[in-house]
Design goal:
The protein is an all-beta fold. The chain has strands at residues 6-7, 18-21, 25-28, 39-42, 44-45, 51-55, 62-65. It contains no helices and 7 strands.
Length: 76
């Protein structure tokens, strides 16, 4: 079963911002009024094989996975 992809950014997000999320996949649309396409990103695992983070290649927004924010059964 696939996990729903949840938008985690506000339209006014600026370069270098960090968001903590309990989702393994996130959507980044970049700063408002930019030419940043909407992209779907999946968390990168750390050396222990646990979800860690992902950085948007367009705006450098960083998403950090926080298991405490995850719904039960939606992370590994």
């Amino acid at each position: 079963m696939s996990e729903a992809i949840t938008p985690s950014l506000k339209p006014s997000t600026f370069k270098g911002e960090v968001t903590r999320t309990g989702h393994l996949r996130v959507v980044c649309s970049g700063p408002q009024f930019s030419k940043h396409p909407q992209v779907y990103l999946t968390m990168v695992d750390d050396a222990s094989g646990h979800p860690s983070h992902v950085v948007c290649p367009y705006c450098s927004h960083t998403f950090h996975f926080d298991a405490a924010l995850a719904k039960p059964g939606h992370h590994h």
